[in-house]
Amino acid sequence: MLCQICGKNPASVHFTEIHDNTMSEIHVCERCAEEKGMHTPAQQHQFDIADLLAGMVDSMTNSEEERVGHVVCPRCGLQYSSFKETGRLGCSECYKAFQNQLKPLLRRIHGDTRHRGKAPVRGGTAGAALRHVQRLHDELQRAVEREEFERAAQIRDEIRKLEAEARAAVPGSPS
Q1: Residue 165: which domain range?
Q2: The pTM is what?
Q3: Calpha distance 72→51 (Å, rounded)
Q4: 154 inside domain
């Protein structure tokens, strides 16, 4: 995409403005942005995911313990307050040490706290059934968290039914 001002150089600075529910975009090159005073110092820095995470962590702290950051990883010694500043964990054990603080953050970023990955298309109906049961387990967990116990019981019964059907479909498996 070429600069919308000079039409010569590639556009590397992109602005989006929303005014009265109308969005307008302008794409300009570095030189034109500087000449028009559109270039701000904040835009000269590279985007850093760690800074984004650190900012999200700050906005999510609820208790005094989380704000103070007294939680420490037993393996690497990283304090939660240091993670809040950098957005980087020190080791794999940090996930367990900071579990209570990280769960809301991960849920906010990814929509869940468990990594799902992708399932191969060739997994067939067995793979689809397993994914369906996993989704039901997740839905069950959310229903319990929301104290919707009647809904949770319905989901539990559906999971049991599907798991029993799966066991019955496998020859030689115990029922």
Answers
A1: 121-169
A2: 0.36
A3: 21
A4: yes
